[in-house]
Amino acid sequence: MRKIKENLKMIEKRMADRRMRIAMSDIAVTDLHDILTIENENFTNPWSFYMFYIDIFVHTDTCYKIAKIDGETVGYGGFYFVMNEAHVCNIAVRKTHRREGIGERILCTLIEEARKTGADRMTLEVRVSNAPAIGMYEKHGFKAEGICKKYYSDNNEDALIMRKHDL
Ligand SMILES: CC(C)(COP(=O)(O)OP(=O)(O)OC[C@H]1O[C@@H](n2cnc3c(N)ncnc32)[C@H](O)[C@@H]1OP(=O)(O)O)[C@@H](O)C(=O)NCCC(=O)NCCS
């Protein structure tokens, strides 16, 4: 827990140094248009409005957060939880705002929220070719624990299964 707080402080300092003011908050229905824009620019199999709506506003075992800078949506992320495990569904950052520390700010917020729900570990799948995401997860203590063969149906790419223990 101390580690997450330290990471969040470090990220906030890095953003303050760049005079970036990022606000993390719950997602409102009116945010879904921005989220879909980012989803569509990032993924070959993007989620639909309906999928986000159900996952965020109907399911009770999920947690989603949106990142904004001066009111502009720059990223989002979410997870669902089963017993003591949180499973990341998605994290994405606007292409125009990459490498500004937003992805790791979202990830650390999700870890913090997962810990609050009682989760003690976090899991996710990531394309084996997705070096930026794998780098971000490794930086925050996730380890590769397996491969799911041909997990992604668009190109039959394998997924790396990554897990962080002891949230
Ligand atoms: C993965 C993603 C969320 C990272 O967001 P970001 O805001 O650009 O990342 P950050 O600036 O917070 O970087 C955090 C760390 O991630 C790693 N990283 C990020 N981009 C990287 C890149 N292009 N190459 C290598 N490492 C990278 C680095 O370790 C970085 O730490 P550092 O800046 O101290 O080196 C973003 O690239 C994205 O939205 N990708 C498309 C969607 C996606 O693939 N989501 C993950 C699905 S599992």
In short:
This protein has 167 residues and is an alpha+beta fold.
Description of the structure:
- This protein has 167 residues and is an alpha+beta fold.
- It has 5 helices and 7 strands.
- It has helices at residues 2-17, 32-42, 49-58, 102-116, 131-139, and strands at 22-25, 62-69, 72-82, 85-93, 121-127, 143-152, 157-165.
- The chain has a 7-stranded mixed sheet, sandwiched between helices.
- Helix 1 (2-17) packs antiparallel against helix 4.
- The longest helix is centred in the N-terminal third of the chain and has 16 residues, at 2-17.
- It is globular and about 45 Å long.
- 29% of the residues are buried.
- Coenzyme A binds next to strand 4, helix 4, strand 5 and helix 5.
Can you tag this structure with a few keywords?
5 helices; globular; 167 residues; binds coenzyme A; alpha+beta; Aminopeptidase; seven-stranded mixed beta sheet
| Major beta sheet summary | 7 strands, mixed
CATH architecture: 3-Layer(aba) Sandwich
Structural class designation: alpha+beta
Number of strand elements: 7
C-alpha-based Rg, rounded: 15 Å
Total helical elements: 5
Strand fraction equals: 25-35%
Q: Could you give me the name of the CATH homologous superfamily?
A: Gcn5-related N-acetyltransferase (GNAT)
Count of domains: 1
The CATH topology is given as Aminopeptidase
Ligands in the model, by name, code or SMILES, are:
coenzyme A
Any idea what the shape is?
Answer: globular
